Amino acid sequence: MVGYAQDSYQKKLPPKVFVPKGQWITGSSVSYSEHTENNYDLLIFENINADGYTFKVSPMFAYALKDNMAIGGRFKYGRTLVRMDETQLNLDDENQFDVNNIYQLKHSYSAMAIFRNYIPLGESKRFAIFSETQLEIGGSQSKVANGRGEALTGTYSESTDLSFGVTPGMVAFINNYTAVEVSIGVLGVNLGKTKQVTNQVETGTVSSTTANFKINLFSIGLGIAFYL
After folding, report:
1. pLDDT tens digits, residue range 184-216?
2. Cα 5 from Cα 34, distance rounded (Å)
3. Is 21 in a helix, a strand, or coil?
4. What DSSP line would sit under 66-107, residue for residue?
5. Virtual CA dihedral for 181, 187, 193, 198, nearest 10 degrees?
6. β-pair type (178-184, 153-173)
7. pLDDT digit string (tens) for 145-167?
8. Which of 71, 111, 130, 197 has the most CB atoms around it within 10 Å of its CB?
9. Residues 66-107: tens digit of each pLDDT
10. Helix residue ranges per DSSP H, the chain
């Protein structure tokens, strides 16, 4: 309904209204990346031979209770696999360690409540910036195996997380109903607890509290949204 090509509809919208009351918003962001290292050096890590991938998907829906204000939900799922065949840890000339045959598989999932506030850029009905406030609860499961044969060791972990954060972004319509969204994580507070079991015998727990109040350029998100 909102789009730069729909001139007759734009004239009906009051000034500064980008998303009118009563509009539904739905969409998703998907990302996939692979990496392969062959005899790669990074700081104190030398001769890295590894590969892996990361997959993430995050569907979203929202409803505009007021002009330029919407509430809704978002879900996230991620899967990460890392295989490290051979790596050397070089602290100094006398302290060198080999790290070989490491396998890690991690699944993460979460659900969050979101509140969005849109700010149009000038009189444009095509571009706007938004601020998305998020309250998220989620968890993850991971397993790490090290070594081979009788020397094989393994650790299984489960974690639970609760976080509150704000994510700003920009939305640009490519037609009357479809928009591209770009967002950057800026600030948030996270509470987490992790339980571990090593070799099905040893157990341990870790509790953490973190706060981030700076722009993180490595948390850029790109997605597609439909305004119905």
Report:
1. 877 788 888 889 888 777 788 888 888 877 666
2. 38
3. coil
4. ETTEEEEEEEEEEEEEEEEEEEEEEEETTEEEEEEEEEEEEE
5. 70
6. antiparallel
7. 876 666 677 888 999 999 998 88
8. 130
9. 999 999 999 999 999 888 776 666 666 665 566 667 778 899
10. 7-12
| pLDDT at residue 11, as a whole number | 44
Task: Return the C-alpha torsion angle 56, 61, 65, 70, nearest 10.
Answer: 20
The Cα 90–Cα 16 span in angstroms is 58
Residue with tokens 């002009």: 67
Output the CA–CA distances (angstroms, integers) from residue 78 to 32, 85, 105, 167, in the order listed.
10, 23, 11, 19
- Is the model more confident about 217 or about 134? 134
What are the residues whose beta carbons fall under 8 Å from the beta carbon of 20, sequence distance 6 or more? Answer: 1, 2, 13, 64, 67
| Token reading at 59 | 């569907």
Report the alpha-carbon angle 18-23-29, nearest 5: 85
Give the predicted TM-score (pTM) of the model: 0.72
Secondary-structure percent of the chain, ordered helix, strand, coil, rounded to 5: 5, 75, 20
Rounded to whole angstroms, how far apart are CA atoms 192 and 208?
Answer: 5
Q: 143: phi > 0 → left, psi -120 to 50 → alpha, else beta; which?
A: beta
CB 71 within 8 A of CB 113: yes
- What is residue 206's predicted lDDT score, i.e. its pLDDT? 85
